[in-house]
């Protein structure tokens, strides 16, 4: 078994290393110097290469699939030698082959890797051109170093034994001294304990006397407090009865005033509705943005067209864009800002609004239309391939309402122009009648901080108080513009920021948009686009809602969903708390679906289709006007069981 195991071991050794270098010798004579690598056998000699690095002064000799009998490591040869100063032996894989490398730190006499090589039986000889070197043998250097190490180890062992003996002697002396000190400490402790006991007995007698005196004083004080409390209770009872009577009178007066205010409010709303109906009938009110006479969408016959007509004639020189955000600007005079009119028909125009620079037409992403100005109207047109039928789809927003017509024929039908003209008016559907009204309101636009860090001021002045600091990616609600500053809201705070440090989402550069996306991702609020804000929007012809104000009468053939007035929808919130101990009572409302969104309202604040009429200690009373009918709605605080009080 032993012979079998030895045979297996030798086969494994030979397969791992085909050749073994027993020793390295360096000799010099009159002909020159040479370095001989003594192999264990003349068979299976390895491949070889040599490399000289002039910058580091190193000569490297490498043998494939070889091992070194003295082992790998670093060897000091001769520190000041002009040939070999030191040697590092290590293995390294190069291009799939394992090489044994001899990396030598050499002197000035070795400055090339073009040294001659030869074989002398099993010795591999590298011949050098220089002469005058000192001969050495690696195995002898290794043996001398091992002998010196063994000698040093013996000296170290002797020194350790001596140190251990001295340490044992020192510990014995320390133990003897510690026992002596312990005896002294014990004697001193017993003496101190006797003194402490005597002092404690004396202090206990003093404490007992002081406690008896304090107990007598406390008994006297409690008697006086009881007498004062009884007197104060009588006074508080009288004051409470008086306050309850005054509160009853105040609540009665408030109830009467509230009922009177509700009647007056109903009268005022009825009068306003009457005036609005009159204005609509006379053509004085408009469902469109101010300054715009008509917006029309026409789709069919392979094209889609958008046409806008304004009160001021449009010239092509005043039309610019589309810009990077796919927006076209018409530089004509008008209001500095307006509601956002979203166009739900077609795939060409997304929304229209007034800005400080004129009318801004937001195109759908990637749309590049042909622009034409004809008779003072701007016409945008693109190719349309989605509709495969013949005919037209027509959509028009005018001051008197929004109109829609659909005249499409299947591929089998032959379109007839005379029939189209004849049925033009007959098939038209008026979406909004004269007795209906759109209540448009400005859309709250979201601003994004694009500077690394900015100040949030209490006033539009750089010397004003800094309420807080904002960083890139923070969201703000745009309220107004004041010179170089924008009035904005963040959370429950309203203040001012430099308008150059903020931007709307659709005005961001591609770099800013990518950075914002990364910031949102890091914060865990990634949305991919600007946060939507509530507003009056025409998202789609048949999908929007309108506030229908015709005293209960409406067109039964029209499904109205349209625009809503600004305010809180009481059907989607819950009463969370009432702040009563303040000059002005306030109620705290939270969204039913998202409790992180909250509102604070006080009496008189407007809500969706109404206002906050009254706030008591336990309830909030709302006045709601819908479809020309007024109603009151009460919301109470939840009790400890989850129901309403």
Question: Short description, anyone?
Answer:
It is built from 4 helices and 37 strands.
Number of strands: 37
Please list the strands of the largest sheet in the order they lie side by side.
19-20-13-12-21-22-23
> Could you say how many structural domains there are in total?
5
Helicity range of the residues? Answer: 25-40%
Morphology call: flat
Uncertain regions spanning at least 5 consecutive residues:
1-17, 425-443, 528-565
CA-CA gap between termini: 95 Å
Quaternary status: single chain
Q: What do the pLDDT scores average to?
A: 79
Structural class estimated from helices and strands: alpha+beta
Total number of helices: 4
Please tell me how large the radius of gyration is.
49 Å
Beta-strand residue percentage: 25-35%
Largest sheet composition = 7 strands, antiparallel
Please describe what this structure looks like.
The chain is of the alpha+beta class. It folds into 5 domains: 18-134, Sandwich (Immunoglobulin-like); 156-285, no CATH class; 292-416, Immunoglobulin-like (Sandwich); 446-523, SH3 type barrels (Roll); 570-636, SH3 type barrels (Roll), CATH 2.30.30. It is 28% helix and 35% strand. The protein contains 4 helices and 37 strands. The protein has a 7-stranded antiparallel β-sheet, with no helix packed on it. Strands 1, 2, 5, 9, 10 and 11 form a 6-stranded mixed β-sheet that branches. It has a 5-stranded antiparallel β-sheet with strand order 3-4-8-7-6, with no helix packed on it. A hairpin with a 7-residue loop joins strand 6 and strand 7. It is flat and about 125 Å long. Mean pLDDT is 79; it is low at 1-17, 425-443 and 528-565.
């Amino acid at each position: 078994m032993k012979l079998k195991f030895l045979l297996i071991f030798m086969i494994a050794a030979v397969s791992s290393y085909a050749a073994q270098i027993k020793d390295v010798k360096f000799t010099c004579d009159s002909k020159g110097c040479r370095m001989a690598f003594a192999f264990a056998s003349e068979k299976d000699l390895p491949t070889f290469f040599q490399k000289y690095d002039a910058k580091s002064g190193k000569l490297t000799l490498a043998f494939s699939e070889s091992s070194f009998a003295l082992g790998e490591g670093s060897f000091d040869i001769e520190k000041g030698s002009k040939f070999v100063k030191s040697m590092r032996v290590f293995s390294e894989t190069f291009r799939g082959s394992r090489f044994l490398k001899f990396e030598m730190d050499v002197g000035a006499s070795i400055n090339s890797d073009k040294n001659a090589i030869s074989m002398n039986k099993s010795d591999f000889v590298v011949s050098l051109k220089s002469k005058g070197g000192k001969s050495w043998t690696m195995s002898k250097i290794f043996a001398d170093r091992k002998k010196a190490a063994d000698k040093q180890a013996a000296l170290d062992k002797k020194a350790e034994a001596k140190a251990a003996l001295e340490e044992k002697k020192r510990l014995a002396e320390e133990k003897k001294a510690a026992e002596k000190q312990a005896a002294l400490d014990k004697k001193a402790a017993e003496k101190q304990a006797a003194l402490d006991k005597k002092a404690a007995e004396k202090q206990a007698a003093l404490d007992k006397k002081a406690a008896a005196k304090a107990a007598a004083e406390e008994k006297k004080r409690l008697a006086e407090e009881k007498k004062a409390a009884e007197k104060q209770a009588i006074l508080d009872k009288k004051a409470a009865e008086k306050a309850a009577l005054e509160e009853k009178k105040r609540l009665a007066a408030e109830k009467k005033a509230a009922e009177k205010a509700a009647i007056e409010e109903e009268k005022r709303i009825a009068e306003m509705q009457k005036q609005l109906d009159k204005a609509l009938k006379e053509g004085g009110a408009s469902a469109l943005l101010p300054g715009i006479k008509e917006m029309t969408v026409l789709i069919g016959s392979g094209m889609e067209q958008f046409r806008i007509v304004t009160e001021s004639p449009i010239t092509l020189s005043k039309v610019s864009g589309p810009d990077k955000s796919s927006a076209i600007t018409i530089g004509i005079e008008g209001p500095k800002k307006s509601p956002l009119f979203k166009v739900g028909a077609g795939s060409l125009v997304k929304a229209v609004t007034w800005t400080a620079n004129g009318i801004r037409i937001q195109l759908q992403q990637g749309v590049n239309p042909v622009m034409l100005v004809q008779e003072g109207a701007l016409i945008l047109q693109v190719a349309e391939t989605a509709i495969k039928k013949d005919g037209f789809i027509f959509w028009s927003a005018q001051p008197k309402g929004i109109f829609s017509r659909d005249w499409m024929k299947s591929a089998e039908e032959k379109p007839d122009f005379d029939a189209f003209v004849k049925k033009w008016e007959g098939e038209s559907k008026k979406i909004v009648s004269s007795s209906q009204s759109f209540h448009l309101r400005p859309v709250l636009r979201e601003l994004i901080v694009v500077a690394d860090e900015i100040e949030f001021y209490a006033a539009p002045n750089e010397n004003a108080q800094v309420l807080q600091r904002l960083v890139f990616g923070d969201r703000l609600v745009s309220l107004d513009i004041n010179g170089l500053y924008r009035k904005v809201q963040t959370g429950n705070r309203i203040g001012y920021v430099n308008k150059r440090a903020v931007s709307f989402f659709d005005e961001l550069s591609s770099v800013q948009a990518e950075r914002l996306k990364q910031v949102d991702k890091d914060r865990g609020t990634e949305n991919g686009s600007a946060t939507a804000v509530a507003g009056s929007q025409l998202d789609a012809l048949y999908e929007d809602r309108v506030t229908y104000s015709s005293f209960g009468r409406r067109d039964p053939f029209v499904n109205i969903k349209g625009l809503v007035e600004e305010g809180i929808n009481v059907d989607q919130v819950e009463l969370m708390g009432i702040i009563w101990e303040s000059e002005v009572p306030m109620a705290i409302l939270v969204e039913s679906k998202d409790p992180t969104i909250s509102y604070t309202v006080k009496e008189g604040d407007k809500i969706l289709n109404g206002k906050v009429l009254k706030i008591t200690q336990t309830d909030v009373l709302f006045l709601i006007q819908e479809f020309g009918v007024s109603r009151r709605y009460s919301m109470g605080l939840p009790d400890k069981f989850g129901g309403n009080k």
